[in-house]
Amino acid sequence: QDIHMLLNVQHNCHKLGCTIKASTYDLVGPQGICKQSQTMFHSVGNEYILNSASLYSAQIHCEVAKISFPKVLAQEWKNCIMMGLARWKSAKHNQHQKANQ
Predict the structure, then answer these.
(1) CA of 97: how far to CAs of 40, 72, 92, 100, in Å?
(2) Per its UniProt entry, which superkingdom is the organism in (predicted)?
């Protein structure tokens, strides 16, 4: 009950100039094809960015990002869900018809 929010911060690779470099060759698949792997090399520094998309509270996310949305009424939610379901069913039906042609 004392926790108000969780924050996810990540290393600021852009500001610190971190790089991606080729590192090793791996054998891939039954033919043993060589594929070069890439590795992220992080620069040393105390720079972080807030990953606001990972906030667990939608309300706090909106406050941090300074976003405001109008209140959505229950009937509007229902209409939106029904419209999405109809589109999904239509798309699945069209895929099924194309597969049978």
Answers:
(1) 45, 36, 9, 5
(2) Eukaryota
